[in-house]
Amino acid sequence: MKILVVGSGAREHALAWRLAGEGAEVHVAPGNGGTTEVAVNHAVDASDVPGQVALARRLGVDLVVVGPEAPLVAGLVDALGQAGVRAFGPRKKAARLEGSKVYAKELMRRAGVPTADFEVFDDAAAAKAYVRRAGRPLVVKADGLAAGKGVTVAADGGEAVDAIERLMERRQFGDAGARVVIEERLLGPEVSYHVVSDGERFVALAPAQDHKRAFDGDKGPNTGGMGAYSPPPMVDTALEEAIVEEVVRPTLRQLRAEGQPLVGALFVGLMIVDGRPQVLEYNVRFGDPETECLMARWGGSVVELLDGAARGDLSGVEPLWSAPASLCVVLASSGYPGAYRTGERIEGLEEASAVEGVVVFHAGTRREGDAILTAGGRVLCVTATGASIAEAAERAYAAADRVRFSGRQLRRDIGWQAR
Predict the structure, then answer these.
(1) Pick the CATH number of 325-418 from 3.90.950.10, 3.90.600.10, 1.10.760.10, 3.40.50.740
(2) pLDDT tens digit string along 235-267?
């Protein structure tokens, strides 16, 4: 089977690695310095919809797997369908679930999905007045896509007002911040939950937990994710059943009822409040770095999972896990998520990969001759499996410490709730 994976991060490397391991001929566009080890890279930007369609047709692929959210929101799957190319991922209308926080919150309300109380504003003065009246901790979210950085969990009213000014007045993320959602701040552990849907049926994957803050102890600014592990111990059988019955089924049912069934991955970001799930956000693609943990643990056929969803028939596909636990540690450039340098030479990748149960996925790298250089904020995702989270963590950190590049930073407490 010939498959094109769209994207350039560790999520795409993990997917390509699994697909190639099952014997598929894998192409990645644009890919990174690590995907060249398992696939053929093509220099087409992930958000270049005409370019991706042309590449898929030229290669004659059987399936396109779209990794990042931006091309999904831009309608890449619609364009591929019009060209007669099968794709894994939602069409543009369903992708609004991630492309617009306002649309997502309103759909939660229509579907009866548990979530924090919220208000929507397109006027900065009105939004700031609301914050000052509220007198309680709030969360401010840009309506549109902001590369995972458009959310401020405000400790007080001053931080909330500052977030409104950055988003709505200074337009830190352009038009994404023209409207904001301001919602009640929930307290509790966060959980990432993924399902793969064919529009009617779905396969539930294992829960995971991401670590968004830059520094140990969940301190510092939010990032795209500094590590993750699976499964989190707080998700027992009863809680997982509640997530499926109170969140997943009503969401997919509502999308079908509104004429936009979701085909692809639904990733639900949850806060567990007093033992019950509350939805923080929806994503319509696999999470990153959660995907790295899930692909390392998965024991079934990823080709059957993704292609079955794209074909509209997941009947007979069951979740299978080959490892009890997995954990990944992100190695980032100095200064991330702020300004950072690139072009640093990376050493020790072979030594890291030699650690039992470890695979190193590339996030922001590029290949220059025989050298691998840094090319992004998040550089590598060192992922390990184990009999427990503690064993997976021991292996992942042993491998991470064998990798060397100037300015390397990482968190030392990934999976702390389970170790």
Answers:
(1) 3.90.600.10
(2) 999 999 999 999 999 999 999 999 999 999 999
pTM comes to 0.95
Domains of the chain by residue range? 2-91, 123-178, 190-311, 325-418
Average pLDDT, the chain: 95
Checking if the pLDDT of 148 tops 80, the result is no
Three-state SS string over the chain comes to: CEEEEEECCHHHHHHHHHHHHCCCEEEEEECCCCHHHCCEECCCCCCCHHHHHHHHHHHCCCEEEECCHHHHHCCHHHHHHHCCCCEECCCHHHHHHHHCHHHHHHHHHHHCCCECCEEEECCHHHHHHHHHHHCCCEEEEECCCCCCCCEEECCCHHHHHHHHHHHHHCCCCHHHHCCEEEEECCCCCEEEEEEEEECCCEEECCCEEECCEEECCCEEEECCCCEEEECCCCCCHHHHHHHHHHHHHHHHHHHHHCCCCCEEEEEEEEEEECCEEEEEEEECCCCCCHHHHHHHHECCCHHHHHHHHHHCCCCCCCCCECCCEEEEEEEECCCCCCCCCCCCECECHHHHHCCCCEEEEECCEEEECCEEEECCCEEEEEEEEECCHHHHHHHHHHHHCCCECCCCECCCCCCHHHC
Q: What is the pLDDT of residues 343-367, one digit of tens each?
A: 999 999 999 999 999 999 999 999 9
CATH tag, 190-311: 3.30.470.20
pLDDT (0 to 100) of residue 153: 87
pLDDT exceeds cutoff 80 at 186 = yes
